[in-house]
């Protein structure tokens, strides 16, 4: 009997100290090694698996949606920091200059925020994370914080919105795992997490299929208004119909103010700088994000907008008024401020003031 126990224990990767943060071991159970050991990758995958399991409930309850958001955000944070640990274990500390192995081993460290982890992955680890993926992860962290402090409220916590966001986050994290984390594991460690990876992938397909089927059902409603329908800032589907003081998303029922819709589009779709105040649903002005509309007179025209009609035969980026839904040909816009500019006078990139600011920052 003693020989059998020795063989079973030897087949499981040993729980390691700080080195295991650089090459995480597989999950070992209490029965086999006498203690619980959830190394970073296995821990992150367990969170993702839990999120998809809660989302698979029928019906999806408010409690299930709460844990989808909490566990998805936790899994994303753990996996991002696991990649930081591959670079060096001190990078997961809030202040790497104060990092100690004792704090790491005891779990008493004060770790960096998700935003700081993203920044360090790009700047130090040279990991390529696109702006849209970065915004997706940042918005997830914001929803998690709001949920923890204020509860489950608003259109962003409706089941369709949560499912769509979950699909976007899982899609990124699976690519991130395949490209940045799994290659660092041993063959045995990869086998140990293969079951979770398979389950998560299959559920991602189911969630994505749900979004596609729902969009197909909405086609009759959305086809007539494709020319002034944009991607929703909450569920990321081309279902936010512009027009009037409160645009409405037909996919997740998000109903933002015009100012908030402008801010989301400027930040997420056009990668422009946007002040935090612009996202307040009480904000009525466009805070300089929009140009004056010749049709309604509001400062709510944004240039370079991709609408749902972009994929049509003659589709193109347009200038769209986020209040009256007037569509007109777009003008060249500055890469800095997003405002129209004269290419003949200023060149192809933008207005002189923004280009000067860019050079100073560099």
Report on this model:
By secondary structure, this protein is mainly alpha-helical. It folds into two domains: 2-216, no CATH class; 220-330, no CATH class. Helix content is 49%, strand content 6%. The chain contains 14 helices and six strands. The protein has a three-stranded antiparallel beta sheet with strand order 1-2-3, with no helix packed on it. A hairpin with a 6-residue loop joins strand 2 (238-241) and strand 3. The chain is globular, with a radius of gyration of 24 Å. It starts with a helix and ends with a helix.
List keywords for this structure.
disordered C terminus; 14 helices; three-stranded antiparallel β-sheet; 2 domains; 362 residues; mainly alpha
Summarize the structure.
The chain is mainly alpha-helical. It has helices at residues 2-10, 19-22, 30-33, 40-55, 62-87, 101-106, 114-123, 131-150, 159-181, 187-217, 219-222, 258-269, 343-346, 352-361; strands at residues 229-231, 238-241, 248-249, 301-305, 318-321, 327-329. The protein contains 14 helices and 6 strands.
